[in-house]
Hints:
Layout: H1 6-17, E1 20-25, E2 29-34, E3 37-43, H2 44-56, H3 60-71
Amino acid sequence: MPMASPKQYTAEIECAKARFTYSESKGEKVMILSNGKLAKTLTGKEAVKFLSKIDQLASEEQAQLLMAKITGQFKFGNERQGKLSKS
């Protein structure tokens, strides 16, 4: 079994940490995936705007935050408990 080079290993770890990914398709269409499942589809001007924003970001963490905000899945783990919740 061949050993992975350090660069490949680092890339695999970074990919494993990434919750969100996206893919472009023809006709100004972008699909944002969360853990491999479709979370949101962007079309037209919304897709073009997303692609221009994501190209300008400096880090993977910023890209993950942008995709989380667009899909509405960025509040997990930090919501306050309501008065009526029983935990």
